[in-house]
Amino acid sequence: MRLFVALELPASVREALAELIKEMREIAPKAKWVRPENLHVTLKFLGETSAEKLDAIGAALESVRSGAVVEMEFHGLGFFPSQKRARVLWAGVKASANLAGLASDVDREMTTMGFPAETREFTPHLTLARFDPPGMSPALTKAVESKAARSCSLGVLRTGKFHLIQSKLRRTGAEYTTLRSFPFAAEE
C-alpha cells in the first residue's frame, strides 16, 4: 500500500483552487495538473507499506497531540526549484507555528515504525501542477506572476485532525482513499 499522512482541505479552499487550476490549465494544457479532489497538505510521505503495519501505524499516529488546532491561509503561487527550471507549480501556505511541530511529531512516530526520518525542513505547500520536462511557457509564467502580484487569497483551513491516506496510482492519475482520521487537538 502506498501511504501518506496529510491534512485535508475544506470545500471552500478546494473550490477556489479548482477555479485557479481550471484557469491555468487553459493556458498550459500539457502540464500534469493535480485534480482538485486530490489536493492536500502532506505531513509525512510513507511510501509503499505492508498492510500488516496498518494497525501499528494507527496506534502510533493516535499518540500525536497538539495544544491547538492548526490554522493555514493559502495564498501566492511559486515554482520549484526555480521559475526557469520549474518542475512544480505550488500554492503557498502561511501556517500557525504549531504546524511544523505537528509534522515533526508525525515524523518522529513514523520513524519509530521504521520509516526514514525527514532530512529536509518541513515546508507546507500545495502542489498544483508538475512539468515534465521542466520549464513553463511564457504565457503561464505571466499568468502566475499576475496572480502573485494580486496576492490572491485561496482560503483558510482550521483543523484539529489529520488523515492516513492510501494512494493508488492509475493511468488517469492518483486515486486517494482516507483510511483513518486522527484528532490531534480539540476543535472549537
Give an overview in words.
Strand 8 (161-170) and strand 9 (173-183) form a beta hairpin. This protein has helices spanning 11-27, 54-62, 98-112, 138-149; strands at 2-8, 32-33, 40-48, 70-80, 88-95, 125-130, 153-159, 161-170, 173-183. It starts with a strand and ends in a 5-residue tail after the last strand. The mean pLDDT is 91. The protein is globular. The chain contains 4 helices and 9 strands, in the order E-H-E-E-H-E-E-H-E-H-E-E-E. By secondary structure, it is of the alpha+beta class. The strands form 2 sheets. A 5-stranded antiparallel sheet has the order 2-6-5-4-7. The chain has a 4-stranded antiparallel sheet with strand order 3-1-8-9.
In short:
This protein has 188 residues and is of the alpha+beta class. It contains four helices and nine strands.
Protein traits:
alpha+beta, 4-stranded antiparallel β-sheet, 5-stranded antiparallel β-sheet, single chain, 188 residues
SSE order and pairing:
Blueprint: E1 2-8, H1 11-27, E2 32-33, E3 40-48, H2 54-62, E4 70-80, E5 88-95, H3 98-112, E6 125-130, H4 138-149, E7 153-159, E8 161-170, E9 173-183
Antiparallel strand pairs: 1-3, 1-8, 2-6, 4-5, 4-7, 5-6, 8-9
What does the average pLDDT come to? 91
Q: Report helical residue fraction.
A: 25-40%
Please tell me how large the radius of gyration is: 17 Å
Low-confidence stretches: none
Number of strands: 9
The spatial strand order of the largest sheet comes to: 2-6-5-4-7
